[in-house]
UniProtKB/TrEMBL annotation:
CDD domains: TS_Pyrimidine_HMase
UniProt cross-references to PANTHER family, sorted A to Z: THYMIDYLATE SYNTHASE, THYMIDYLATE SYNTHASE 1
UniProt key word Transferase: yes
Keyword terms, alphabetized: Methyltransferase, Transferase
Organism: Streptomyces demainii
Record-given protein name: Thymidylate synthase
Enzyme class: transferase
Taxonomic lineage of the native organism: Bacteria, Bacillati, Actinomycetota, Actinomycetes, Kitasatosporales
Entry EC number(s): 2.1.1.45
Top-level lineage group: Bacteria
Length: 344
């Protein structure tokens, strides 16, 4: 197993490995891919969970939206499809997602609606050395549904509290190296940090294990462009700020309420309105991301803040870089010098 300081180094390494030195070429369910088996790596700093390389154009808004969707225990398509319309093809009924929706499995697993999150918290509080703090994701019955378009890719998440630090291992039955792994590592390390804060522990390392790590044929050109493009100088540091101390679930409740209002275009925020929400800086930044995405999706309205209200400038350098790279229209909403700095 290889150790990396953060996810970007691991990501670029494994994309190149799958591109240039695959172990197998195959086409499960007709989808051509190249593959390596039994791949694992360790991240020393799970807060370095974002890809800043401009060739990848990370969608940090979706990353947060998906992680919060899990933590809310939701499975509704409307929420996630707003941030990633393509997920609709995985819904069998046009209303819900099943395998993709880890939240209900985390908080209401099986016929007994087991709260696995609470079980992990209780287990580690009672026995900090336990090896039993596991959240199961894949359900055996998924494999018995004919033509199931949405089988969970994740087997389980294991939390290990060692010497005051919370480590985590994410076990994948299969992982798409170019697309899926970016979202999975973000969400899993975010869950890890939320759990660490709830337990009052420091953040330990994150280990990612994939039975099948694969690169799909349609992503080969993009993977080549990414691997061939040197990492530009002057990119912002890729480590996210730490979550506020203590249990962050009350903040999560507030942010999800605000997110729904923004998603439905029932609320519009300028910097003053954002400050009036009274959220800690970390969560205020997340809400700012959702507001800027609302502007991209819904466009200007009669009550919208002015186009140059300074909200983009309020973002951290890391988030500002990612947003301007992913959504170039936002470049007009902050100062040209800052666009230049963020896009270097």
């Amino acid at each position: 197993m290889t150790t990396f300081p953060g996810f970007q180094a691991a990501y670029l390494h494994h994309v190149a490995d799958l591109l240039h030195d695959p172990q197998f070429h195959n086409a499960p369910r007709g989808f051509a891919s190249q593959e390596r088996l039994g791949v694992s790596f360790l991240l020393d700093d799970p807060r370095r969970r974002l890809i800043t390389h401009p060739a990848r154009r990370t969608n940090v808004v979706f990353n947060f939206a998906e992680a919060l969707w899990y933590l809310a225990g939701r499975d509704d398509l409307d929420y996630l499809a707003y941030y990633a319309p393509s997920v609709a093809r995985y819904s069998a009924d046009g209303r819900c997602l099943t395998g993709t929706a880890y939240g209900p499995r985390i908080f209401r697993y099986g016929a007994r609606s087991l709260d696995q999150w609470a079980t992990v918290v209780d287990t580690l509080r009672q026995d900090p050395d336990s090896k039993r703090a596991v959240i199961q994701i894949l359900r055996p019955e998924e494999l018995h549904v004919t033509d199931n378009p949405d089988v969970a890719c994740t087997l389980c998440l294991q939390f290990l509290l060692r010497e005051g630090r919370l480590h985590m291992v994410g076990y994948m039955r299969a992982n798409d190296v170019y697309r899926g792994m970016v979202s999975d590592v973000f969400s899993f390390t975010f869950l890890q940090e939320m759990m660490a804060r709830q337990l009052g522990a420091e953040l330990g390392g994150y280990t990612h294990v994939a039975g099948s790590l694969h690169l799909y044929q349609p992503d080969l050109p993009a993977a080549r462009r990414l691997v061939d493009a040197p990492l530009p100088a002057g990119l912002p540091a890729d480590a996210m700020d730490p979550l506020p101390e203590g249990d962050n679930r009350p903040y999560l409740t507030d942010v999800l309420r605000i997110e729904e209002q923004l998603r439905t275009d029932a609320l519009r925020l300028d910097p003053d309105r954002l400050d009036a929400l009274g959220l800690p800086g970390y969560w205020s930044q997340v809400v700012a991301l959702f507001e800027l995405y609302r502007r991209v999706r819904h466009g200007p309205g009669p009550d919208d803040p002015g186009p140059d209200d300074g909200l983009v400038d309020r973002l951290s350098p890391l988030y500002r870089h990612l947003m301007v790279t992913r959504f170039p229209a936002l470049a007009a909403l902050h100062h040209p010098m800052e666009v230049s700095d963020a896009a270097r």
